[in-house]
Specification:
single chain, about 120 residues, mainly alpha, 2 domains, 5 helices, elongated
Length: about 120
């Protein structure tokens, strides 16, 4: 709940039309705290759930595999990192057939996470 509150607080500060030195200081502190809370969320909560890619993500991965000329580099699809996030310590079996989805984990290298500290 604290993360949700801090994100809404940051959003309210970001929507201000005119900033003062105080409001900019609050926003900077809020941004740092959100970054800390996001890292804590990833470390404590995300490891408790096994997630797989969406069907549209699997389709896109298969299209990129078939036609490498249209491949756009995407650093947040690190399968090795998602294997390390297995909650029971046993990495799930990955198959490369199109009907199986690859396990994923939340990415800290997305644009939003990078700008939030």
């Amino acid at each position: 709940m604290k993360l949700l509150y801090r994100i809404s607080e940051w959003h309210a500060l970001a929507k201000l039309r005119m900033h003062t030195e105080d409001s900019l200081g609050l926003m900077e502190e809020s941004t740092k705290e959100i970054g800390d809370l996001l890292r804590q969320f990833r470390r404590l909560t995300c490891t408790q759930f096994t997630t797989v890619e969406l069907p549209r993500e699997a389709d896109a991965r298969m299209r990129r595999k078939r036609d490498p000329a249209t491949d756009i580099p995407c650093p947040d699809h690190d399968v090795a990192a998602s294997l390390n996030a297995a909650p029971n310590g046993v990495p799930p079996t990955i198959t490369t057939s199109g009907d199986q989805n690859v396990p994923t984990s939340s990415s800290k290298s997305t644009f939003e996470a990078l700008i939030l500290g």
